[in-house]
Amino acid sequence: MRLLVFLVPPLLFAAPFAACSTSSSTSTADAGVDGSSPGDANDEFTMDTSFTQLEAAPVANCKLNGDADPVGLCVQKMVLQDMHTHAFLASKGVAPSWNSTTQTPDLNEAGVVPYSLDDTVAYAAAAVSYLTSAQDYGDTTINGILQHDIEAIALQLESGYSVPATEYSGELYFHLRTVAAGLFTLALNSDAQKFNTFADQYGLSILNNHYFPLGTRQVTKGDAGSADAGHAADGGHDATTEAGKPGDAGHPADGGHDATLDAGKPHDAAGTVEAGSTVPDGIFGNKSGSQVAYSPGDVATAAYAVLDMIGRHAPAPDASASSAPFSIPAALAEVRASLGHLQARAIEPTTGMFYTALLASTDGDGGDGDTLAPTTDPTTPSNALLADTQATFVLAMVHAQNLVTTGTTVDLTGADGGAVTDAGISGPFLPVLDLPFEGWADATMKAMNGARPLWDGTPNQPGLGYMDGLIPGADGGAGQLITTKSTRPNAFMAAALEVAFVQNSDDELQWQLSSLVQLLVAQQSSHVLLHSSLLSVLPSQQAYLRGATQAFDPLDSGPFPTSYTTSAASAAVDSLNEQLPTQTP
Fold first, then answer.
1. CA angle 162, 169, 227 (to 5 degrees)
2. What pLDDT does residue 544 have?
3. What CA dihedral angle connects 528, 72, 391 and 447, to 10 degrees?
4. Which member of 96, 244, 254, 319 lies 3.0 to 4.6 Å from 234 by CB, making a disulfide possible if both were Cys?
5. What does the angle CA 111 – CA 114 – CA 116 come to, to the nearest 5 degrees?
6. What string of DSSP letters covers 380-419?
7. pTM of full prediction above 0.90
């Protein structure tokens, strides 16, 4: 798996996880990036750092090994160069959006450019993700520009970073990790370590300031998703359906785990427990009076970030004690409780999709569900089931599965006939090995393609991408589709499907991947019609818009409908880089 994601376990996610969030606020001044006057996106910048300009002439190469372009490299190059020229200011950061016609940053109600920590770090992470692919392609056209921007952003944050008080989504965490990796590559080791420290501080804030115990809850049959997703060391495969019967050697992708370890056990989010049992409850979120406000997408990325923290700080097998700056058992318990709460409380029952924003009671078991909370968009009703929420959850879960699987060692020494027993499994994630991360992701993807699909097209064939959501009908009625299409959830789904196929090559949604990638890279040309993709919404489009209509016409409502956005651009770039083969010929 490549650098990125949203972005290798530690680098995963530089990606698709940009600044958008439905319940946690975006920081605008905590990192030395702040509002500024119109027109300052083109100010000059000078700095004294160890950066050295490349002496050789730039090399342009839009093909990998002369004939393939799995990541749309020159599309990415165009987008990042447009961001650099029109949205980036070395002394401030990156604007959230810039006008596609005037090519100037959009102003907020106060008449200033609202530079933000999230957008700035998302751009830096996307630049690192691009540079990783460009190195394999042998393209150096904009390497010097992007390296200089990354270093400028490093200087900004080093002089003024503080953890956003109300933000808990794991997206910023992984963007910081990805920037750190890029700085290590540039041999700026001191700067890189500072970014890792920033990420640690953010991760600790999730654990210390954004987890809230909710008493206990009663386990229900559906708590672990639609089915038992199997042992986590198996990549989440369901032993009862894929292995065929107890005692089978298991799904080939499971590494041969004995199905008897998985079959017949109700792998609830709280562990292997029977329905009706009482388990600890809790959720990642923000306190709101006697309730906790949370978004399932943010909770999923927070859980994944905590798992990454555990993987990084877990003691070595021969260490006498842990030196982690937090309790690893407590952190694992918080992940288990939060993800279990989502399965029990945050899913709309007729579709199987997640609500967007909810309020959980801190007074103990909340009964059959939490209270719906208003969405950040006043035109979107609180019961809307948004593609962005589903895609964010799916992407976080497939990466969590990869992290837990690769971070777990299976010892076959002395095994009888190759059978694997739990006694031969070791690693920091043992207490959550029963959590079906990929099974949850699969259940959500199937819900997105269910009786009322968000996919625009025949559910079992290539199509035209994911629409933005569904407003459920009363009493299980058909409801109303939100037919617009946003760049971010379609990019997230492209990344999630690619990661899922690496882990499970027989995934039944494989046919969607090529459609989603084409929606992200197809530019208007003699072969590509205007209004046929997310990159041909406007004539001569140079970057990614927030979204488009179902027919890929420009939007006519919402904030800056025909402006390019950093959130969309960074998600698309990082998602495309997820398509790069792990090993190239």
1. 160
2. 98
3. 60
4. 254
5. 175
6. S-TT-EEHHHHHHHHHHHHHHHHHHHHT-EE--TT-STT-
7. no
Of the candidates 80, 129, 56, 20, the residue with the CA atom closest to the CA atom of residue 377 = 20
How many whole angstroms separate alpha carbon 299 and alpha carbon 303? 6
pLDDT over 70 (residue 49): no
Name every residue whose Cβ is closer than 8 Å to that of residue 139 and which is 6 or more positions away in sequence.
Answer: 59, 60, 61, 62, 73, 74, 77
**Is 261 within a domain?**
no
To 5 degrees, how large is the angle CA 558–CA 489–CA 105? Answer: 45
Cα dist. 303→119, 484, 497 in Å?
A: 22, 29, 20
Q: How many domains does the chain have?
A: 1
CB neighbour class for 91 (10 Å; exposed up to 12, middle 13-18, buried from 19): middle
Would you say residue 128 lies in a domain?
A: yes
DSSP 8-state secondary structure symbol assigned to residue 105: B
Domain span at residue 143 reads: 35-206
| Residues 362 and 290: beta-carbon distance below 8 Å | yes
List the one residue out of 373, 434, 362, 369 whose CA is nearest residue 216: 362
Contact 93, 156 (CB under 8 A): yes
Whose CA is closest to 251, among 267, 265, 234?
234
Question: What is the rounded CA–CA span in Å between residue 466 and residue 463?
Answer: 9
84 falls within a domain = yes
Q: What is the largest CA-CA distance in the chain?
A: 71
Does 254 reside within a domain?
no
Structure tokens, 393: 């959850």
| Residue 97 phi, psi (nearest 5) | -155, 155
Structure tokens at 566: 């950093």
- All residues at 6 or more sequence positions from 543 whose CB lies less than 8 Å from its CB, including other chains: 78, 79, 82, 83, 100, 564, 568, 569
How far is residue 79's CA from residue 73's CA, in Å, rounded to a whole number?
10
pLDDT at 255 over 80: no
Are the beta carbons of 341 and 303 closer than 8 angstroms? no
Average pLDDT, the chain: 81
SS (H, E, C) 260-285: HHCCCCCEECCEECCCCCEEEEEEEC
188-226 pLDDT, tens digit each = 899 999 999 999 999 999 999 999 999 999 887 656 433
